[in-house]
Design goal:
This is Collagenase NC10/endostatin domain-containing protein. By secondary structure, the protein is of the alpha+beta class. Helices cover about 15% and strands about 15% of the residues. The chain has one domain: Mannose-Binding Protein A, subunit A (Mannose-Binding Protein A, Chain A), CATH 3.10.100.10. Strands 4-5-6 form a three-stranded antiparallel β-sheet, with no helix packed on it. The longest helix has 15 residues. It is globular. The mean pLDDT is about 90.
Length: about 160
């Protein structure tokens, strides 16, 4: 991923490629960034988190960390419109985050700041099938898992 900046850049460029105008950040903790902090405090409890079709995944950013479960039967889409739970592009159905359940960075869970894909190094990830994005378990950094992108610009009412 080339670090957190590389992951953020991938989110930004993939969003732009499909015509989205906002700023998108990787759903990842880093040494100087807890996952919980990537959305502005003023928006954390009042703006719903939606997928690319504006279907509500979570009632708010805070809900990701409080109850932590995606709403039933609401898909998570890639920027090219694929349902990540049902598409073979992501066979392992895991999402990287590098965090504790509360959204703080996990000291040993960030694949050496998202720069390593070595089997001997671990990062924190969660199984997407659980519906909980922060059901943290240590996983080999060699895994090709999903990296979610969160819109954190404030021109629109809903975050994607």
């Amino acid at each position: 991923m080339r670090g957190i900046r590389g992951a953020d850049y991938l989110c930004f460029t993939q969003a732009q490629a499909v015509g989205l105008k906002g700023t998108f950040r990787a759903f990842l903790s880093a040494r100087l960034q807890d996952l919980h902090s990537i959305v502005r405090k003023a928006d954390r409890d009042r703006v719903p988190i939606v997928n690319l079709k504006d279907e509500v995944l979570f009632d708010s950013w805070d809900a990701v960390f409080n109850d932590g479960r995606v709403k039933d039967n609401v898909p998570i889409y890639s920027f090219d419109g694929k349902d990540v739970l049902n598409d073979g592009t992501w066979p392992d159905k895991m999402v990287w985050h590098g965090s504790t359940g509360g959204g703080q960075g996990h000291v040993d869970g960030m694949c050496e700041m998202w720069r390593v894909d070595n089997r001997a190094v671990t990062g924190m990830a969660s199984p997407l099938q659980s519906g909980s994005l922060l059901q943290a378990s240590a996983s080999s950094c060699s895994g090709s898992y999903v990296v979610l992108c969160i819109e954190n610009s404030y021109a629109a009412e809903a975050k994607r």
